[in-house]
From TrEMBL:
Database matches in InterPro entries: Dynein_IC (IPR050687), WD40/YVTN_repeat-like_dom_sf (IPR015943), WD40_repeat_dom_sf (IPR036322), WD40_rpt (IPR001680)
MF term (GO), any: dynein light chain binding
Organism: Brassicogethes aeneus
Keyword presence, tRNA-binding: no
Lineage of producing organism: Eukaryota, Metazoa, Ecdysozoa, Arthropoda, Hexapoda
Protein name: Dynein axonemal intermediate chain 4
Amino acid sequence: MFSVKHSECIGFESKWKVVKVSSEAGMQTSEFQVDTKGTSTVENKGISIQTDSTACQSKEVDMQKVADWLNRIYPNVAKELNEANNSKAFKGYCLSSDSKDFSLKHLQTIERNVVTEKGDSNDTISSMSWNSTGKILSVSYAHPHKGWCHHNGCIYIYKFKNGILAENKKISTDFCVTNIKFHATYPSIIVAGTYTGSINIWDLHREDNEMLVASINGHNENITQLSWIPDIISTKNYLLASSSIDGFLKVWTYDYTTSNLAIKSNYKFKLPIFGNIKRDTPTPKEISQKVWRGVVAFDFSKFLSDIFLVALEGGLIVECAMSAATEIKGGSEESPLSDPVVKYYESQESEISAVSFSPNRKEMFMTLGTDCDVRVYVLDQEDPAQIIYTKEPLLATTWIPYEDKLIAGCGKNGMLEIFNVQKAKLIENINSDKVSKTALSKIAVNKDNSNIVALGSINGQIQLWNVPWNSIAFNN
C-alpha cells in the first residue's frame, strides 16, 4: 500500500518544503494475450443407458455415527461462521461495474437555537458522537469562553432511523460541555467533560432523573478530549481516557455494573531540551512560560494498544508508551504521576487542534493545525511524510474507515471536503451543494454505516449527509 520515499516536489505550491511523499507500491503484471487457432469440432453422440432401479434405493444410515460426526466438526464450523459474520473485510466494497456516481446526498438539516435555563444562548456545537450501533447521535452545545464558565450546558440525543434524525432526549449540565463520547461497546453509556474539568457519565436506558450514574471532578481546567480505550490487561474491558489544559492525561477504570469511576493512571509530559523545539515563529509567552504544557488532543493506537500520541500546547507532538512510563514527582501514593514520553516529532508552527491514528494502517497518523495544514506522519519518522495544504482553514478532520487513501474535513469553507492522502490534494470533482455559508466545526462518521456523516456548524446547525466513500476512492 503506502511506502515512504524522498522526492523532489513537482507541481506543488512554493510553500512546500522537503516533504516525503507517500505513494502506492505498484505491481508488475504480464500482458494478457489471446491467440486464435483453428479447431476441429468433435461430434458427440448420446448413448442410452439402462439403470437398475434398485441401485437408487436408500440404504439404512447409522444415525449415531452421523451425530458423532456432527459433534466433532461443529466447533470448527461455528468458529468459522462467527468469524465470517463479524468480519468487516468486505465492508464498503463494490465491484468496478458498480455506479460511478459519487455525488454527496444531503439528507437533513436541523436548525437549533439553544437557550439554557439561565437564558444563555449556546449556539456553538462543541462535540458530536455516534453510539456503537450507529442508531443514536449525541450533540453538545457550549458558550464561547474567555474566562471562567458560569453557563449551563446541554446535550441533545437524536435517534437515527430511516435516514433521518429525530430528537429523543435532552441532558442539562451545570457547566458548558466541551467533549462527549459514547462507550465503545455499551450503546446507552455516554460520557461528557465540562469546561470546569468535571466528568459525567449517563445511562440513556434509565429514567430521566436517574440517568446520571457517575460524576467526578477529574481535572482542574477545561477538558479537551475524552476517549474509550481497550484495557491492555483485559481486552474485553474499556478504560476512559481524559485530557485537559491542566497538563494531565488521565486513564480511569469504569465498572458498568456499579458505575464506579476510579483513577488508574496519571500522566504528565516533560518538555524536550529547548534546542529540540524547532520553530520559526516564537511560542506564545503564556505557553512558553508553563512548566507543564496543556494537553490539547490525544489518540491511542487501534493496533498497538500500548502506544498513544499526545498533542501539547505550542505545536508539540509526543509519542508515548504506557509500558515505558517512569514515575516522576508530583503524584501521590494513591495516584502516582508518570511520564510516558518515548519521542518527540517535529514541532508545528501553529497550534494543533487534533491528532488521530489511521484506522486502516497501524503506522500512520495525522495532525490538524490552525495554519491550514493537515500533516500525515509515520511512527518511525520525526517529520511529516505528507502535507496537505488547504485553501481555507479546516476545523475538523477524520479518517475514513476502510478507505486508507481518503480523509475528510470541514471548516470555514462551509462544506465537506475530501482529500486524497497519496496525492496530497483536494478531490474537486465531487457534486456537493453548500447547504449554508456557516463554518462547519465538527464531523462524525456513523459507527455502523460509514457512508452516513454528521456535520456541525459554529451556529448550532446539524447537517446529515450520505457520502459514497468507496465510489469516490475508486474514481480518484
